[in-house]
Amino acid sequence: MKSLQHPVILILGAGAVGLSLAGKLTTVARVYAACRAAHAAAIRERGLIMEGVWGDGTVGGITPVTGPDEVPPAVDAVVITAKGTDTRAICEEYAGVIRGRPMASLQNGIGNEEIIAEYTDTVIGGTVTTNFSVAGPGRVRVQSESAPMHLGAWSGDGGAPGRLIEIVRSAGIPVEADDDIRSGKWTKALLNIAVNPLCALLLAPVGVAADENIREIVVGLIRETYAVADAEGVRLPWATADDYLAHLFSVQVPDFAAVYPSMYYDLRRGRRTEIDLLNGYVARLGKRHGIPTPHNRCIAGLVRYAEAHPR
């Protein structure tokens, strides 16, 4: 990455997260956002409309792109915010642009970085817990910000995360360095592994996890995930699965009790889910390590069936 004097940033898969990020970064960088045609047309016509805790107003200066031919050759860093189901496809499409560039993932699930590493040497892992939504074509809303963004080295140039953090921070976005971003990605995924597929399958909000008929399934999912994480050498903030489960049922499930996760909406709308970057990923790694993961395998299989047979 060159000097911080107006670097060139490409955001791939710019929906709610990516467009919001583009809107902030445009004050300190030349930003190109690969987005859907409807967003691109609206942004070209009148700029990006932003609402919420990151500011209200219309932002100019973002260059929307709909293909790699529209991206300049001098890109300093790439940020991917696409759904995990689209990671490989978008990396293939933009392979010529990505190659040799530091690339950061701000995506849900675990396993995206492994795919990205097939296309470039320097990969930056990231987590973001801010609540973003699309309010219309070229219009985004940042509803709340519960914690800073975290960025850390996954592979390649160990200095790349620090340079990207400087850019992000200079745009006024809270961000922190994470020396163990792999742990951070797994930590964020725990709640999604525990409740997202159950909510999607049962057509229920997060509070369903506390039901006595469901609780045992959640316990099985998390204990298997902890066993696989341990085999992978991943250190989690809670020493044992039972420690995390206590936090899940006493804090997270009550806090999000009325929330329907994105996987619920994906199934309802007939879209592919990120199950293979959550429970399916745990099951695949479990097989590699010889660790039984019957709960995760079962849940992943049920979600895949529901994807193939929309209601």
Automatic annotation (TrEMBL):
Domain Ketopantoate reductase N-terminal: start-end pairs: 9-155
EC number: 1.1.1.169
Pathway: Cofactor biosynthesis; coenzyme A biosynthesis
Main EC class the enzyme belongs to: oxidoreductase
One Pfam match: ApbA_C
UniProt-listed InterPro entries: 6-PGluconate_DH-like_C_sf (IPR008927), 6PGD_dom2 (IPR013328), ApbA (IPR003710), KPA_reductase (IPR013752), KPR-Related (IPR051402), KPR_N (IPR013332), NAD(P)-bd_dom_sf (IPR036291)
Coiled-coil annotated residue ranges, if any: none
UniProt xrefs under Gene3D superfamilies: N-(1-d-carboxylethyl)-l-norvaline Dehydrogenase, domain 2, NAD(P)-binding Rossmann-like Domain
GO BP: any one term: coenzyme A biosynthetic process
Keyword annotations: Coenzyme A biosynthesis, NADP, Oxidoreductase
Lipid metabolism found in the keyword field: no
All copies of domain Ketopantoate reductase C-terminal, residue ranges: 180-304
NCBIfam families assigned: apbA_panE (TIGR00745)
Described function: Catalyzes the NADPH-dependent reduction of ketopantoate into pantoic acid.
Name listed for the protein in its UniProt record: 2-dehydropantoate 2-reductase
Species of provenance: Methanoculleus palmolei
